[in-house]
Amino acid sequence: SITEKIYHILARLETASSLLFTDLFEESTSKAQVIGTFLALLELIKTRVVKAFQIERFGAIRIMKAVAEQKDRDTETGNLFG
Q1: Which of 3, 51, 54, 57 is the most buried (most CB within 10 A)?
Q2: Predicted model pTM
Q3: What is the dihedral sign for C-alpha 13, 5, 56, 69?
């Protein structure tokens, strides 16, 4: 399920500071798993739990947690509730 994929992505980001976009699909054995992983990633980006960035045009896409940056932003704006 997409929820399981979300937990899987977050678990992988606990042990690594960032992941390559392509690394997220290494364990996918079916089209449904690829789609589920992609939808989970989109949800994590939409909710600003992770961010995706690309340093150079056509370069590798990296995924990293965005939580620390959000906390910093909330502290600067005085938003105590996130």
Answers
A1: 51
A2: 0.73
A3: negative
